[in-house]
Structures
1.
Amino acid sequence: MPTPAATSADEPRPAASGEDDHLRELIETDHISTVLLAVPDLQGRLKGKAHDARHYLQRIAGEGAEACAYVLATDVDMRPVDGYALSSWDTGYGDLRLIPDPATLRVLPWASRTALVFADAHDLDGQPVQVAPRQVLRRQLKELEARLGMSAKVGLEAEFFLYPCDPARIADGRPLAPVSPHNLDYTLDHPAPLAPYLRTLPEHLRLAGMPVEAVKTEGAPGQVEVTFPYGDPLKACDSHLVFKHGARAVADGQGLVPTFMAAPATGLASGLHIHLSLWNGDKPVLADSTGELSPVALQVIAGLLDALPQLAPLYAPTPNSYRRFRPDSFAPTHFTWGHDNRACAVRVTGHGRGRHLEIRLPGADVNPYLALAAVLAAAHHGIREALTPPPASTGNAYKTTAHAPVPASLDQALAAYVDGGLAEHLLTPTVARHYQNAAQVELDALRYEVPDTERRRGFTRA
């Protein structure tokens, strides 16, 4: 563990970077009074502490801060759960150290005089925590560079549903009526209170350093889609978590509530589509000189179709995730690929140098670092093994009988994850077992819960 600097509590520490210099200026001019030091948890949420800004500069910016390691070994309800090597009753629920990444500094326009900085999780001996989501992704990016000389560019396409806030119904788990009663896909006429929200959210995201490409209402009542520009993979995932934080804060200020469930109600579904391209320096790898798919692109597609069936808990992490994979839903039901075909798991899209792959398997509930790590590991697998994909799907890919189906449940997905062997090979045994336990925790949490559908169907009939 780093030794604290021998300075008084009131003596500022020297700035560690240009970002710290900028933060210091914001604090000294009284623009910032609070710094949120945040680490992504297993569910893809921001966890951490709100630090007094001057204390952050004096102590936290250089040495980091401690937090209970269970923030990376718990469930959606933040319960202490068994089965994790990182943190448990057997280990005494000790601490880890959160080391700030100053390059991630953002000022949050939806929170008064507040900045946010991402942290990387280290153990108390100073070693990075392998199972931390940022580290899982970082490892795949480093392997892609070290073994293949390639880098990745990523764009995330986020969907979510928006509802008028009704705390009593939310607390009871009762259904909510969406903010708009009709399908407003591609419409430019938005009713209140949807219109003010769609104006405010992108404005706030831009002020937070995350300009969007586009915002649109989607194909179900109350559904919104936000797309972000192509760029650095780690930054894209960081930005997605800040986006979700902002989406909730802006909604709360307008009497609304968003949900990032994969399937918030019967027949409704939201995805987090990953747009991926690979590069060798400034040269695109997935497109050949004519702008068509390169031989490497076909290997990548083959790797995705071969490995992703065994990695589903990383991009479909909850039982609810699997309610999204329905026919005629714009979510895939089989591991297929095709050209500009939205019924496929992997869609080839873009033109010329912009030719790239859209992976349509992840749902809105996903942790983006883990989903992208799974995608990159599968792509690397396809290139390394020189795999060949099956023929591209044409027409209605929901009618295929020639391709493996997407798992019907988290039980099925976990069995393939454990039995297939690729998870440990592609992710390391430590990481694979950590997220195996996370999936098992999700299953156990709901295994004996009686859903409303069973009560409706069986209460007076059984």
2.
Amino acid sequence: MAFIEFNTRNHLPGERADAVRETCAALANMAPDISGGDGLEMSMRIRLLPGVSIASVESSTLSVSRSPRQLADGNDDVLLFLNPADAPRAPRQGGWVLRQRGEMPCTGGPGYVGLNEQAGRIDFHGARASVLLIAFARQHVLPHVADVDRALRHSLPDTLALRLLARQASALARPVGDGAEVGDDERVRMGQQLLDLGVLALGAKPQARAAASARGLRQARLKAIQADLRVNAWRGDLSLEWVAQRHGISARYVRALFEHDGAVFSDYVLEQRLQRAFGRLADPQHAQSQISAIAYDAGFNNLSWFYRAFRQRFAMAPGDVRQLHAQEGLPA
């Protein structure tokens, strides 16, 4: 997944304005209107997927426009301007206003739809304004939307599809660690999932809604649950029913989501707990912790089951892992 990152802090104060102009022109064929460039602060993280591009932007006061001159490039992408879930809420931090077919402020709802084929601009104001921008190829989106005019006239409704879309896009707009890149098939699948969620968020036609729900919504729900489990798998009260209630669906549907992906809910939870235990056993900072305490901390309430599952998963006992990593840390 191609990833591009830009930050004015990597440039000298006197060079920031030119760096922003060049970056906006190269990445989006947009022209920034900059005054007082020495104090300008802007950061962008961009993820490119087949048919979809995502940009997470933070900026101090700035206006970026797409005028008739830029429209000559023929780009007709459909743009979703969203408020990131982790954006600062304090008014003094700043906000943004999209100006296309009228004035559309960030305070007017979860976000708006824009069209690259129409002139317009986005104004950032304050010390730190944040926007999540998702661009879809027009031909992949608008033919599947039931009421295009309404989608363009009003703010986007706060739906499950839109929340999942924003969550997925925000996660993809962050850099990934070494070795975490995915193959071409996975990139296509992720792009299709975002496209499905985008169509649903805009109000899909019945046939498109059925297809998109079966693909994008189901996968997005599964990923949201998996992300939740990566944080909460070691809770003592975690259960299938607990997860279902948190996500507003039935326990049967949670189980079906995993099964459709060729997985099992309990196996996924077990893997998270085993990985946590392994990490603690290999960490010198936990060298004085008893193995039983590490097992309980990872969510296991039965030590015999923990030892058996650990050995089956890693082909060694917990004590062997601790001893191996302790030996690796000794000076030569």
3.
Amino acid sequence: MKKILKSILLTFCFLLVFQNCSDDYDDVLHYRNTNEFVWTGLNQYYYWQKDSPDLNDGKFATDVAFQNFLSNYTPESLFQHLRYEPGNIDKYSVIFSDYEVLEAALQGTSKNSGADFGFKRKTAGSTEVFGFVRYILPNSDASTKNIQRGDLFYAINGVPLTVDSDGYLNPTGLSEDTFTLNMAAYDNGNITPNGNTITLTKTPYSENPVLIKNTHQVGSKKVGYLMYNGFYSNYENELNNAFAYFQGEGITHLVLDLRYNSGGSVNVATKLASMITGQFNGQIFAQQEWNEKRMSYYNSVNPDALLNKFTNTLSNGNGINSLSLTKVYVLTTKSTASASELIINSLKPYIDVTQIGDVTIGKNVGSITIYDSPTFRKENVNPNHKYAMQPIVLKILNKNGVGEYSNGLLPNVTLTENYGNLGILGNDTEPLLNLALSYINTNGKINSNFNTKVFEHVTESKNLDRIEKGMYIENPPNLNRD
């Protein structure tokens, strides 16, 4: 395949000289078409590159054969064709025709009504679904309406919620800027329409993932509680300020609520782990495992770039507010994914991690944003289109090389949420937090058998923007075109 890539570059050089265009190095390395960019980016970085038949280095004998192959696809269909067993092995790689939309989603910015939803099957194996309100964002449209955590709905715009044969939520009015929820009641485990409706309107919204921080006194123990809903680098300061608050309160224990946190930046996850601890500065928090080509390259030029290490500074150079804890209690559900699971798995070699709630989703792989540019970064990006890819490029492991949790991380104490009584987040009577406080108060001497009706997880509203359960590297090591 290297012969084809050299042929591409030579062709560009000829065309640029012939047309008297700019002789900048950046211009030479722009591809002839978007499909060429899609194929080459995946050929270089896709985690399952060797497993995808049409991404093999020796697949095309000539450039003509290569271009003929590319001509059969749109950028989107080519990307889907090259993915390895999408929906089974590769569940998360995506492509966007506008990288600005992708960038905003990665930082928690989107059109949002302010009501965050989860979706469950009504009964096991059923195609019928119900939605429930997980939380309401402040200063949003939903915050001005008569809707709150725990409210249930069975339809949107009068159309009942269902899933298709692959378990994906069928298109709903949630994609519209204004939509109406058809509400329901929880009747001894049955979801029963109650005739009420609530209309919500989306506006551009940036979500501060630090939703709740407070403290609870449990005997002689002072417990900090943090509900954290996304690893967004734009909100590093807000996260650090939360830990300054905990420092000032003199907490001795921390309950980290990641039940609705579907992931985000590995870099931010490393900083959060450093805030919880502080005594491991410079030691390995996580290790990155890329495809064979990338691992060979990185190991030869800069193997340290594959390590994420505990740190004592933020990206802006400010110091991290750390607690030096030796224990942490993490609340989880089947919506807990990616960077949230990374926190649990990568802290375990260093401190005691007690997981309370439900099994996590099991996403141990991460992505990067790939642009059409000389370095695949955004600098000197091709001005002729705005496509960017967010493919899976790596698996993430803890310092001991442990990272096989694709079936999810099992809780130490199991309790699923009760949709008849979700409780008030941050309140010491809320079931999951109450259980964590009881665990801390008794030093783990509690009955671990709790019965609530279990509903099969479908998805959540955050995943409907196609950045599903994201875990990504913001500044990947030395991207280049081999």
4.
Amino acid sequence: MVSEVDRYIAAGTRENTRRSYQSAIEHFEVTWGGFLPATSDAIARYLAAFAGKLSLNTLRLRLAALAQWHSSQGFPDPTKSPQVKQVMKGIRTLHPQQEKQAEPLQLLGLERCVRWLDGQIKDALAATDAKRLLRCRRDKALILVGFWRAFRSEELCRLDVQFIQARRGEGLQLFLPWSKGDRNNRGTTYSVPALERLCPVDAYCDWLETAGIAHGPVFRGIDRWGRLGDRALHPYSVMHLLREALMGAGLDGEAYSSHSLRRGFANWASQSGWDQKSLMSYVGWKDSKSALRYVDARADFRLPPAGS
């Protein structure tokens, strides 16, 4: 039986983190054949075995999982040894990898996508196609809320009706009990504006009215028979839903991921004249490095007129 202490310890760890760490430990023990507790030499050999096969970020995650296991079990952390650090430095030198970033969804692409979804909604209403109407209104609301609030996919999937106040023509107030940037789980309230076009508030209200959702997760799965599920969408589903909508609108969906909404908003805000402090506050970035990773630099290479 799980004790109350264990239950609260589990609740204090992100579900995604728990899954990732468990997978990392299984990879070390089962796939590679390592033993725990491990020595720094074993950790170094493990890293060398998968250098060039796994990405640097994956190797860093594996190290973090191994460090957490040793710490939680009361053993010295072998991942902090000079040997392991030197091996990681060598892997970065011999297997350099360019960081992949999602293509930002620009405003024109967002307009094109929503215009296509509106056409699908109109056709579904005319044909009394309840399944298509559900899917398109859900996807429209998810994409518009995700863009204008610069949410991550996991934040979209954790939205709950009981924590949202919506008023057409005014805006949305969204409360998330915890998020990636909220390390102390104090909860954060977000505002989403009502807009004259591409309005996330109207899209949200239309979706809830169509789906008849009064409580529970906002964005849910819909099965092949058009039945609405009770559980929230999985964060990985957001990328596929976005890509399908973009491809329906005639865009290259494969170039985008769920992070394209967050990057797209950041680029739109930057190009619209938002200063860095305002953008960081709205999106929830704690340091300027995070902001710079999301906003594309647009240097002006125009030359002055000859003879000037």
